[in-house]
Amino acid sequence: xxxxxxxxxxxxxxxxxxxxxxxxxxxxxxxxxxxxxxxxxxxxxxxxxxxxxxxxxxxxxxxxxxxxxxxxxxxxxxxxxxxxxxxxxxxxxxxxxxxxxxxxxxxxxxxxx
Amino acid sequence: xxxxxxxxxxxxxxxxxxxxxxxxxxxxxxxxxxxxxxxxxxxxxxxxxxxxxxxxxxxxxxxxxxxxxxxxxxxxxxxxxxxxxxxxxxxxxxxxxxxxxxxxxxxxxxxxxx
Lengths: 113, 114
Description:
The complex is a heterodimer of chains A (113) and B (114).
Chain A lengths: L3 E4 L2 E5 L4 E7 L4 E9 L6 E6 L5 E4 L2 E6 L4 E6 L8 E9 L6 E3 L3 E6 L1
Parallel strand pairs in A: 2-11
Antiparallel strand pairs in A: 1-3, 3-8, 4-5, 4-9, 6-7, 7-8, 9-10, 9-11
Chain B lengths: L3 E4 L2 E4 L4 E8 L5 E7 L6 E7 L2 E5 L6 E7 L2 E7 L7 E8 L8 E3 L3 E5 L1
Parallel strand pairs in B: 2-11
Antiparallel strand pairs in B: 1-3, 3-8, 4-5, 4-9, 5-6, 7-8, 9-10, 9-11
């Protein structure tokens, strides 16, 4: 019930294309859903985040779509660039009982020039 | 300043050594965390400190010993580690531990146990 399932495991997209990464969760107590971007040898960096009372959030080329009833959320990267090549982790955290972020397994994105 | 600074960046230690990892933040965050990340895996939570007190210990072996000397510093003391403990150790901080707040991660310490 604490898991966050992420797909696909890896993704190859042409430059200028749309990258889509999907996540699903089971625990309805999660109240914060961040996406992290991680480059090799670096720590994860927060990309964008959403709360369950919002269905969509857009920041530049990055958009989170959130479907509360289906318990699913996704990251869309528009106009994907080679510099976007990294590992992306979706995550979910619970507001009560102490901070605990559950990470998805990660998606390795490669954007071809 | 939105930076979490970790030292050292790389560490090689023998199984009988004692070493420490250090983490520092000056964002006024009152929650700090240690995560362990193996290659091609997501970060795994080890410890959570809230207001300088240990709040969560995710059943981590006693060869890992955390310490929070003050609200800006977090240490992880290592002793008698095993080769399987080799990983990227990440420190993070957030405004509070109640959830729903952004966590900032450091660059990590790449630990190799030989």
